[in-house]
Specification:
seven-stranded mixed β-sheet, binds flavin-adenine dinucleotide, Polyamine Oxidase, Chain A, domain 2, 2 domains, single chain
Length: about 500
């Protein structure tokens, strides 16, 4: 018998053992890992979530009888994963036809300019008049970055995994953009300072609560949602429903179960967690950590490598207000319906909020507005904007990493150990639900490889043992591999006009 035939024979004689995988964190990242791993294997997938519900930074609430996303909301129409998930879970886009498509730039004293996203020709003229050739320098670069990023779907569809975030971004030819600030990058293109201070800062303050000191990749992605190359939409029932849909691929969901430690054990890992039932220990073949380790305390095996430098997270205060808007606040002599639905602010502005977005104008003329800010908005500040406040809802987030360029030597690896995968580091380049979904799929692909390698190691050691004993026995081995399913692209089209946050584009 040839060496190969003997190997195949011995592999087939191994007993059938399904693997067990733990996924820690039931946000879009962990949900996507479970969803894509389910397409690859029939293994037992256990999803741990510290909170009592899945979703993480997708968190949907009812406020003033309106469904609102307190965290991630806007999906770029060409984000194949998020749009595909929404479609396969039967989720409908929001219809916000009653809102105008105006974006205003506010400096705390005056509305510097307004752009009508429904009339691109008018906006283009306005842009050229105000910013000269700068838009013409920036738009092609945004489109190019978006086009390069698009390559991820084919690569992942073909089963390609990446060991590090840098490797993934290099394959998409966007890594260099993460190593320079948007300010430096745009200055290099000869972009006018006014364009940077108003539109660039305005978009990134809205999306990331940070100015253009962030890395150029995050900035270009952020600008894409301001109307270059696609549209953004939200979901009528909120984005948390996507996380719920993804979590259904898990064999078991352990909610309210906070993982405190992962230990190496028996060729795999023991996950130790605390929940209602006390301390729990469970053995797994592999573990995917799908939560930023800066925001949670999980002890890892000493062998875990390349965790990267701890990232600082931007605190974002989210305030929803239902009230009557002070029409004169923005110095515009116009009706509430004609005040821009989305207002960006400049970094040097005296505005207490970083961005303002109308969710709904109700029949009595009151409005439901979402504000992001870097400090908690006081009641006085809210009353200046809304003389009559009916209801307020506040939520504070460690929202996204401070996205400044980070030298490569400070980046983490996706693979911390043989079967220990850390997916959350892709967010160092840009934070968005689509990025989380891509990271989750990469984690699923890496985990499949880790499990296959584990099977091969087991096969080798079993062969060695059996050869030593001089015989082989056992039931035929089943290979737990399903063909890869590629998500269908799904474009909801121009249904959601707001550009409150941009997901990276396909
Ligand atoms: C205010 C705000 C607005 C945003 N707007 C947008 C937007 O419009 N569009 C967009 O694309 N993106 C947006 N984002 C970003 C987007 O929401 C995030 O990038 C994405 O949801 C991150 O998903 P994740 O799964 O990586 O992390 P998370 O959603 O943070 O999930 C991590 C999960 O792990 C759980 N966990 C933590 N520790 C443990 C533990 N020890 N054991 C078990 N579980 C644990 C957490 O409870 C959490 O559920 C926004 C974010 C914020 C905060």
């Amino acid at each position: 018998m040839s060496e190969m035939a003997r190997w195949l024979f011995l592999c087939c004689s191994l007993p059938c053992v399904a693997h067990k995988v733990a996924v820690v964190g039931a946000g879009i990242n962990g949900g996507s890992a479970v969803h894509f791993l389910r397409q690859l294997t029939d293994d037992e997938l256990v999803l741990y979530e510290a909170e009592r519900e899945v979703g993480g930074r997708t968190y949907t609430q009812r406020f003033a009888n309106v469904t609102v996303d307190v965290g991630g909301t806007a999906i770029y129409s060409k984000n194949r994963y998020m749009a595909g998930f929404a479609k396969s879970f039967g989720l409908q886009p929001s219809a916000d036809d009653d809102l105008n498509s105006l974006i205003g730039i506010w400096d705390g004293q005056s509305m510097r300019t307004e752009l009508n996203m429904d009339s691109m020709a008018m906006s283009a003229l306005k842009l050229l008049f105000r910013y000269g050739l700068s838009p013409l320098r920036v738009i092609p670069v945004v489109r190019e970055a978006v086009g390069h990023f698009d390559g991820i779907y084919d690569l992942q569809g073909a089963g390609q995994s990446f060991e590090t975030p840098a490797e993934l971004l290099r394959a998409l030819r966007v890594f260099n953009l993460t190593q320079t600030s948007a300010y430096d990058f745009l200055a290099g293109l000869g972009v006018d300072d006014r364009f940077v201070r108003e539109l660039v800062d305005g978009a990134s303050r809205c999306n990331y609560n940070q100015p253009g000191t962030l890395n150029a990749f995050a900035e270009l992605i952020s600008l894409a949602g301001a109307g270059v190359g696609g549209h953004v939409f939200s979901l009528a029932n909120g984005t948390q429903a996507v996380a719920r849909g993804l979590a259904r691929s898990a064999s078991r969901q352990l909610l309210g179960e906070r993982v405190t430690e992962v230990q190496e054990s028996n060729g795999g890992y023991v996950v130790i967690s605390e929940g209602k039932g006390g301390i729990r220990r469970e053995q797994f073949d592999g573990v995917i950590l799908a939560t930023p380790l800066e925001l949670t305390k999980i002890r890892l095996p000493a062998s875990a490598k390349q965790l990267g430098r701890g990232r600082e997270y931007q605190t974002t205060y989210t305030t929803f207000v239902h009230g009557m808007l002070n029409k004169t606040y923005f110095g515009l002599e116009t009706s509430v319906a004609e005040i821009p639905s989305d207002i960006f602010t400049t970094e040097s502005s005296t505005s207490p909020f970083s961005s303002y977005g109308v969710h709904k104008i109700l029949a009595d003329g009151s409005v439901v507005v979402k504000l992001f800010s870097r400090t908690q908005l006081t009641d006085e500040q809210l009353h200046a904007l809304f003389p009559k406040v009916f209801e307020v809802y506040r939520y504070t987030w460690k929202a996204y990493p401070k996205l400044q360029p980070l030298p490569l030597e400070q980046w983490a690896s996706f693979r911390l150990g043989r079967g220990l995968i850390y997916t959350s580091w892709l967010e160092t380049s840009a934070s968005a639900m689509e990025v989380a979904a891509i990271a989750g799929r990469n984690g699923a692909l890496l985990m499949r490889e880790a499990l296959q390698a584990k099977t091969a190691r087991t096969a080798r050691s079993t062969r060695e043992r059996k050869e030593f004993r001089g015989f082989a026995r056992g039931s035929p081995r089943q290979v737990h591999n399903k063909p890869l399913l590629i998500e269908q692209a799904y474009d909801y089209g121009r249904v959601f006009k707001k550009a409150t946050h941009l997901g990276p584009v396909q």
